[in-house]
What does this fold into?
Amino acid sequence: MAEENKKSGGISRRSFLKGLGGGVAGAATLSPTGLLSEETTKAILGPQAEMLSGSQKIQLKINGKTSSVTVEPRTTLLSALRNQLELTGSKEVCDRGQCGACTVNIDGKTQLSCMTLAVDARGKKITTVEGLAQGDELTAVQQAFVEKDALMCGFCTPGFVMSATALLKQNPSPNMDEIKKGVSGNLCRCGTYPKVFEAIDAAAKKMRKGG
Amino acid sequence: MAAWKPLDEMNILSSRYPRIDGPLKVSGKAKYTHDLKPEGLLYGLILHSPHPAAKIVGIDASKVEQHPGVKAVLTDLHPTGTCRYVGDTIAAVAVTSPEIAHDVLDLFKVDYEILPFSADLDAAMKEGAARVFADKDNISEPRIDGEGEIESAFGPDDIIVEATYRTQVQTHACLEVHGSLAMWKGDDLYLWDSTQAVHGVRESVARYLELPMDKVHVICHHMGGGFGSKLQAGNYSAIAARLAKLADAPVKLMLTREQDFIAAGNRPDSIQKIKAAVNREGKLSAFQVTTYATAGIASRAGVRIPIVYEDIPAWRHEHYDVYTNAGAARAFRAPGCPQGAFAMEQIMDELAEKVGMDPLEFRLKNDSNSTRQKEWRIGAERIGWQRRRKQPGSDAGQIKRGVGLAAGIWWPGGRGTQAQMTIYPDGAVEVRCGTQDIGTGSRTLVAAVAAEELGLQVKDITSLVGESDFPKSGSSGGSTTSPSVAPAIKNTAEKAKARLAELAAEQLGALAVDVQFADGKAMANGKSLNWKALCGLLGTDPITVHGEWVEGLSSAGVAGCQFAEVAVDTDTGRIQVEKLVAVADCGLVLNRLTAESQVNGAVIQGISYALLENRLMDPVTGSQINADFENYKILGALEVPEIEVIFFDEAERGVIGIGEPPKVPTAGAVANAVYNAIGVRIREIPMTPDRVLMALAKA
Amino acid sequence: MVNFEYIDAKSLGDVPDLLGKRWGESEILAGGTDLLDRLKERLDTPKRVINIKGLKELHGIQNGDGLKIGTLTTIAELAADERVHKSYPVLAEAAASIATPQLRNMGTVGGNLCQRPRCWYYRGLEYKCLKKGGAKCYAAEGLNKYNAILGGGPSFIVHPSDSAPALIALGAKIELLSADGKEEMPLDEFFELPIDNLRRENVMNPNEILTTITVPKQPNGTRSTYLKFREKQSLDFAISSVAAVLQLQGSTVKSARIVLGGVAPIPWRAEAAEAALTGKTLTAANIAAAAKASTDGADPMTQNAYKVMLTQNLVKRALEKLAG
It folds into this structure.
């Protein structure tokens, strides 16, 4: 029997031997899908529990202001930014966390908006590339990217700018190795890297001088 | 004939100045096709074939049509009904939200009759391989090129080397996927397209949809990378237009990342079997090469070889296109050349070694290009050619270093661009040109040439590009853009200047021909009129002039050479390019800053091609197994070497394009450096760690 | 992605019950970097996703007699932790080698241990492979340069975790919470070979959650390091990696733990190499013998024989580094 089970796969030896049962779930009602019924879920979580399904309106704090978006649980933050708020500076490139073009800052850390659910971003402080400059006044990092030509087609550029900004906040005097590591999660296909490194170095120097 | 003013009189051109759309791009404000969202936008999706070879027996879209988020469906898209690669278009649909894409696509029921397939070059060339096209062999009739009598050219006293080289399929992997947004206004089709050719796309789409050309308006203000893959119209443009018509709403159809990999172009691979001879004087005397390469279901997988060293008394190149069940190739930065140069530069080194010559000395002896003769010496000095290991592989320890070299080359010039300039009474200047800025800086170049000519600053010019309603310019390909656009802008500005000079002349009491434009002023007779005051003389009517490309300001033909220094870790097989010196020439350098970026980019793509990139076709299913950025590996920040770009100025030749030539030599230079480091020649790219380790183990 | 219902877990005790009893019905959302990838590819189509990020007790590193690492501690936090750097270099180096800065900010230690394989056949919905309930391991007859050289069969995936080899080499234990209560086990016993468990890579049940990782205080004289080899440094998984923890007494190796990553379906204890070192000094000859022994039993596939050489060389380097 145990051998049989191994061959069919799917259930580990431990789970087979140990079995299941006991606890709250043991007594709980199962819905036809096998999942806990909504009623039981509420019983587990308490009456205040929030279970989201289908489309609904949520609030997101983006670039210092609160915005409403209508999302499903599966809607990514990137999709909400791009398709609902028209904050299209965060780019959809790989949509799998492999390129960094959708990098945003969430609660002080660079994160990938394509790998973040919009519902999971509620209550968090989100900064996108559109939230860096004060009006037309570019940040030192942005200015340096322009001056050093750290962009060609520009599609990866917002992601690089986000990573560079976070890097310099964490480490105001990075050496070349630290600069490269700081943007190693961002992919550029035009091959702009040398000028990106140069721009970050120049921005760091300028910011240290208080410029 | 038209001429540029001397370099020392130029204020802008040939200096370094930032691109004018930089602020838009660093702040996320630049709107690419992928970013646009007009009111009521629908999202277009393509259902593609999951089979490398199959007949479409039937498409049942009834469930699709019932989905509430579906606004239009097309099932008549396949021209023949026989799919020949994974990724072939089967059907398309317009939906209300991108989230429901898979929900909807899963509702299509397609009946296929599965056919046998040949997934890659080796499979397709095997005896009894499945035919990609029922009516023809996978291996096409040869194309034969050559000079002299090859049969008798290999002499008894010659030094002969025979070797086979292989290169892989490289995909463009543009960060902005291919796609279009189509919107109808009455009978007029507005098409935002991620393209390298707004005019070309207008012609193709108008022809395909049987619309008058003036009813099709193609727009591409910002574009996220093309590298040749966006020179032609894609089927997605016409599909978006049809969906938009059906749904009576704008439709944006961007390919998925996977579709972009499998169906939107690639650089063909190659097998190159070479026999080459050198005579006792150290000159190439005979060169025989047979090449096989696949462009997938397309033809024209050609390899340019011999390349650079073409003064060979006798040579013959026999080329066979091989059909495979894979997406069609498209032009990719210097089509055919990096493949040929990878093999050519290595066999040059192999010949030099056998004949007992230094590889550089051997190049100098066999390279007839006078520009490159100088460039070789500059590059050798910058890399420190004397540090080359006399005995390849002689470094002690596990990390072994070496130096290698290779030559760049390119031919086309550019012509044919038209432009329009409007000068307003308040001093504003607008230039319209139907070229497009694909990241090369052409928008900036338009402003810079106009500003130089009018004696203004770059910021004073509004440069409008990327619309097919603007005066015609060609596609941004073949390194033709700068040599085609810059002369047209200069010519247009000259015409505007002539009109303004007449106005100024009256005020300054001089002849129009004596009026000079500089520093924001019109000057003559020791008197001057500032730009605003001058334009004020127009009264209420702006002036608009048209100009075009003229002879004398641009030319064709680029040399260039590169030297690479690598470190090979013989424990792991990893190759790190530590330094790359690129000596480049492009006549008059219009903007040193953006020109350097072009060379950097070509070099980085070249190293990536040499070390990592490889489209892998699964032999079991015939699909690309690595159609993503995790497994289609592209050089990243931590792999980029120090790159030194040196421009060999030949301003007297006028403007020449620089996008492609520096991509040609890189893989060859790296491969030669690897041999110098480890003493084992790796004749196949990408030179991944597994290949390096296995080659070292065999040696 | 197929749509699902979403719950923010408010208390750890609720989680096992919310997860339910069958695989595939619920998924835990922590860092999300692996989960969203699988959801987007539709490898998993859960009816419910339970976000556990709000559970404060699962965050952070506590220092007692050793380390107690909450499952939600991010890889970035682990890589930046002073105590980890000072006393557990193998873990700090492993953490720093993972993915990219953004993914390290998102990904959690628990997620790194529980992540699913990267095998390209597993990751493609179109390949109905053994791991997904299909009839064959495509890698066996297809493209297998990144697949297993050790412990393979019938599936030839490799375990992608970097933190797991380091933690196993340090003798870490984990705590699982199910509806039945807590259970502690050595991390070494957490992972399972395909021959024992074809569909999953570890012993967890559908209604379990990994809550804590405890790393014992290392004895005096412990030296450790993690070497990872990948084709490119900017975002890549290990082709082969080695976590080596040696306890030295003078110049003699009192005990050795050598765990390999990226070469087997589970983090692979190189027991023969450990035995070859125990009681020996770190001479070049002994290091070479241990390096050779590290791949004992290797059975390379058609395209991955290089991983045997590579792994031996990495072990040699790691040991040379610890000897130096």
Notes: Residues 193-208 of chain A form the longest helix (16 residues).
